[in-house]
Write a structure and sequence with these properties.
Blueprint lengths: L1 E4 L4 H13 L4 E5 L19 E5 L5 H11 L3 E4 L6 H6 L2 H24 L2 H6 L1 E7 L24 H20 L3 E6 L1 E3 L8 H10 L4 E4 L5 E6 H14 L5 E4 L4 E3 H15 L12 E4 L14 H7 L7 H14 L1 H7 L2 H11 L3
Parallel strand pairs: 1-2, 1-4, 2-3, 4-5, 5-6, 6-10, 7-9, 8-12
Antiparallel strand pairs: 9-11
Amino acid sequence: MILVTGGAGFIGANFVLDWLAQSDEPVLNLDKLTYAGNLENLASLEGDARHVFVQGDIGDAPLLERLLAQHQPRALINFAAESHVDRSIHGPEDFIQTNVVGTMRLLQSVRAYWQALTGAQRAEFRFLHVSTDEVYGSLSPTDPAFTENNKLEPNSPYSASKAASDHLVRAWLHTYGLPVLTTNCSNNYGPLHFPEKLIPLIIVNALAGKSLPVYGDGLQVRDWLYVKDHCSAIRRVLAAGRVGEIYNVGGWNEKPNIEIVKTICALLDELRPKGDGSSYQTQITYVQDRPGHDRRYAIDASKIERELGWKPAETFATGIRKTVQWYLDNQDWVTHVQSGAYRDWVQTNYAGR
């Protein structure tokens, strides 16, 4: 069995679904079920004995101790995190509690479990920490892409909390010998993405006839990684990654935000044309930029390809088409996740911009 934390969120749920589509090895899934954790993401696994779900916090040491003792996982993949930059600007404390304190408590619980293992179980155990390219800071238009050797220069409360968690994972390796692996990924997109992030927000707002908010001049550049490619990379790192190593995972798809928005509009014009024949691009609205907005992220994913033979299967063109089609086909899911709390958040973040 493997233990997945944060397995009801966007990336975690995709990972659990993909894992059980390819393997009969059971998954113990621990998720706090905050606003972004959604059991509906895992509805297809209802009644599947290979999936054991527990609602709980990675900071709950007694719970972790019980789960580890009962289920004896051979590996842990840590997706659990607060992950939205804008939310971290409005309320940084939740990010410190989950991403820093929670990661430390998780590491402590897992260390105690691992130290009690013997023989092959101890030698084969892995703790895989899923992190972000945002810990590296911002790049100029001419800078080379981030490699694993870049120093950490986080610029938002979110990225600072993730950088802190990366440092903790490294420290538990060097101080205690815990066999850890770290992945730093670029911007993910795809099915089950909570509609506060750019791509799902634009799709959902477009279909609802609302404005499509673009921060600043829209020329902030990101590397985009289809979520199922990210999942395959994590499986590969878990299977063959060298203990203590960091692996950058990217899609080789650097694009400015405004191009992303216009691409989505063009796909919707094709797949769900408006009744009046106008383009969804008429809904684009430029809004005040967020504080400290990093200008460019770019991932050099050469190491994971060179050492582990992994590279993304999707281009941005294929991945974004699949993503837009998924949202068109799953309007009930969108309706269910758009709770009153979510609507309040959108109003808080975009009011006055």
